[in-house]
Amino acid sequence: MPFPSIAWDDVRRQLRTRFSETSCYSEVLTTITHLECSLCGKRHEAGQVHNLCECGGPLLVRYDLQKLKESWSREWIPNGPSSMWRYAPVLPVSKPSAMISLGEGMTPLINTKRLGARLGARDLWVKDEGVNPTGSFKARGLSCAISMCAEFGIQKVAIPSAGNAAGAMAAYAAAAGIEAHIFMPRDVPQSNFIECCATGAKVTLVDGLISDCGKMVAARKDAEGWFEISTLKEPYRIEGKKTMGYEVAEQFRWQLPDAIFYPCGGGVGLIGMWKAFEEMEAMGWISSKRPKMIAVQAEGCAPIVKAFEEGKPRSEFFENAETVASGLRVPKALGDFLVLRAVRESGGTAIAVSDEQMIDAGIALASDEGIFAAPEGGACVAALKKLLDNGFLKPEERIVIYNTGSGLKYLKRTRRAILAKGINHGYSDARD
After folding, report:
1. What are phi and psi of 311, to 5 degrees?
2. Which residues contact 425 (CB under 8 A, 6 or more apart)?
3. Which residues fall within 8 angstroms of residue 418, CB to CB, at 6 or more apart?
4. Are the C-beta atoms of 234 and 50 separated by less than 8 Å?
5. Domains of the chain
6. pLDDT of 19 above 50
7. 220-234: string of b/e by CB count within 10 Å (b at 16+)?
8. Rounded mean pLDDT of 254-277?
């Protein structure tokens, strides 16, 4: 087991002493009660394999939060493992033996004083998801989803991916002994393709976008016997990603920041954090205060920004999508209405930046703070500058940027940008 079992014995004992001995909570860690459609509200039973609701809506996992409020203290969290599984009672996996973990979560929250001074933000932080297993925040969602596949006895899984989700699914499927089928655009970063092959996945490169990959998975899954793990087409990736919200609350001693910048392709991380805040308030862990949720996209693929600016509840397919940030090249997100709802309810905004701006901002983050971010993280830095300049955010506000992946995934593209700009920071090539 990749984490100390004594921690789970502690948590299980604490829950058992506070629930009836006949309660299911004395036997398992999760407090899941059911699943609920995010569109029509229909209830779906837990303990069964689900994809979408019959109406086409993504399913959200619900827990017995009132029972947890009476029985689970946030002060116990440090007794759990140093991973996202410290929040096991609000995750869907029923037993520690079913968890497929590589140590994901509990990523560093870094105060970036030099970058903040450069931009005019006096309380600026970066939540660095690039240090997760497989180098991105996708490890959280796929750890949870593959754990549920292991719990349900699913033997074959398939995913369309712009890159990082593919690498994460391949790794966790390998750890679980599950057969993985991956469909990726042919022009994904080579690092993503190589890690999938190295971890034993069956990879198909597609001439097209992630939407084209998704069509191939949908067309073949029934005949091939695959369980589809596309974004929001199963209920559990969002549960792993919501732990980013639990962590930022814990790391700030249960006081949420004033604003959160999040790079949005599928937008599941932002949706998950918004769900986490709702859960924590219901348990009495945080107040009703919410950060302004800021969805960041690339100018070459900005369907959510366009819908936000036009006051629409859902986005339209973004034609001819193109950006250096593979994770942002999602022309139509299934959960766009949930992203837009969270942004509007929080008093936040949606903003797009150019590829050049995100690369330049990523280089500034690396040179100022030593954080080598993926372009998606750089996009958030560039967006922050715009919102400080136009007065949407104030210099004294506490601001958190989520860097969702490691810059090591994009070496070829970053090298090209550095050479084009003549940036070498004193580099020389001395040879004998």
Report:
1. 70, 25
2. 367
3. 363, 424
4. yes
5. 8-98 (no CATH), 109-135+238-421 (3.40.50.1100), 138-228 (3.40.50.1100)
6. no
7. bbeeeebbbbbbbbb
8. 97
